[in-house]
Amino acid sequence: MARAFIGIGSNIEPEKNVMAAIRCLAQQTRVTGISMVYSTGALGHPEQPHYFNCVVEIETEAPPAEVKHGLLRPIENSLGRKRSEGKFAPRTIDLDLILYGNLAMDAEDIRLPDPEILERPFLAIPLFELAPDLVLAGYNLPIGKIAARLPQHGMRPLEDYTRLLREEANRMQPTGRGSTNISG
User: Fold this and answer.
1) What pLDDT shows up at residue 177?
2) What are the tens digits of pLDDT across the range 41-63?
3) Helix, coil or strand: residue 143
4) 0.90 cut: is pTM over it?
């Protein structure tokens, strides 16, 4: 069983879409943790609505390509994600496999760990919340050091919303996969 981490972001109806994405994940796999959700500005696009960003921890037996293409992409599609040429275009939902166990790989369209962990506080800080002792495979860097050097200004924690997400995910966990109390 692999421990994997999914970065989640939305700036089109984010309250609704992040909740829906986590519901879908909880129905299809074992969610073991949800970080604090942060409201953050759109990178380089202050005119866009703010994003809701968080990281979700799952346990899976599926290999990385299956997690990305068989789990995450179908959820994005079901929530109306439209891929465009603009990498930073507004989106209903963005689900990214950012870490998969101790695996370091750069193949096809999967890079693990996601190199953006090193530069995006909305990935590194939530990842640190969920796995404070983690050492990033391939970089040999403790996540605590990465998170500590990234600026946190502009990241507003959404505590009440996070609590609701965790409660909902606990209710949605599939039966027969063991009970887990999802926390951060």
Assistant:
1) 45
2) 887 777 889 999 999 999 999 99
3) helix
4) yes
Cα four-point dihedral sign 67, 69, 74, 75: positive
pLDDT band at 179 (very low <50, low <70, confident <90, very high): very low
Six token digits for residue 137: 């495979």
> Tokens standing for 183?
């926390």
Residues forming the active site: 81, 91, 94, 96
Q: What pLDDT is recorded for position 180? A: 53
Which residue ranges form the domains of the chain, and what is each CATH number?
Answer: 2-172 (3.30.70.560)
What DSSP letter does each residue of 48-94 carry, written as one string?
SPPEEEEEEEEEESS-HHHIIIIIIHHHHHHTT----S-TT---S-E
Q: Are 163 and 39 in contact (CB under 8 A)?
A: no
**Least confident window among 76-80, 84-88, 93-97, 156-160:** 84-88
Alpha carbons 77 and 75: distance in angstroms, whole number: 5
